[in-house]
């Protein structure tokens, strides 16, 4: 039996069927969330310690570490990264679908 392989669009959320706009937002939020998770792990912070640094509750840190992306806005994740000493900068790239600049 031959397996059917579908090429990825480059955005797993788009591949899962989310609308293009929502998929783009989810991808940004997931990248930010993963960075926060990795920093907490690299610093070997306990959830209570991370909560104090991030100025949130321990259950909120638990949600973050369990990947509950639906509970975190882009702004909240950027604030957490700032509290961990990370400055966030975005790289904007044209999609090729938009209008051309004059």
Indicate the radius of gyration in whole angstroms: 17 Å
Structural class: mainly alpha
Q: What do we call the CATH homologous superfamily of the domain at 13-83?
A: lambda repressor-like DNA-binding domains
Oligomer: single chain
* Percent of residues in β-strands: under 5%
CATH topology of the domain at 13-83: 434 Repressor (Amino-terminal Domain)
Which sequence of SSEs, written as H and E, runs from N to C?
Answer: HHHHH
Q: Uncertain regions: pLDDT < 50 for 5+ in a row?
A: none
If classified by CATH, what would the architecture of the domain at 13-83 be?
Orthogonal Bundle
Instruction: Tally the helices.
Output: 5
For the termini, the CA-CA separation is 52 Å
Give the % helix: 40-55%
Query: What's the rounded overall pLDDT mean?
Result: 91
- At the first level of CATH, the class of the domain at 13-83 is Mainly Alpha
């Amino acid at each position: 039996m031959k397996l059917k392989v579908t090429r990825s669009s480059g955005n797993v959320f788009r591949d899962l069927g989310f609308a293009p706009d929502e998929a783009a937002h989810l991808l940004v939020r997931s990248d930010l969330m993963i960075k926060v998770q990795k920093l907490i792990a690299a610093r070997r912070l306990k959830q209570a310690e991370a909560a104090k640094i991030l100025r949130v509750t321990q259950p909120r840190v638990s949600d973050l570490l369990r990947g509950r992306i639906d509970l975190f806005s882009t702004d909240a994740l950027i604030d957490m990264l700032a509290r961990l000493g990370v400055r966030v900068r975005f790289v904007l790239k044209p999609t090729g679908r938009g209008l051309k600049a004059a």
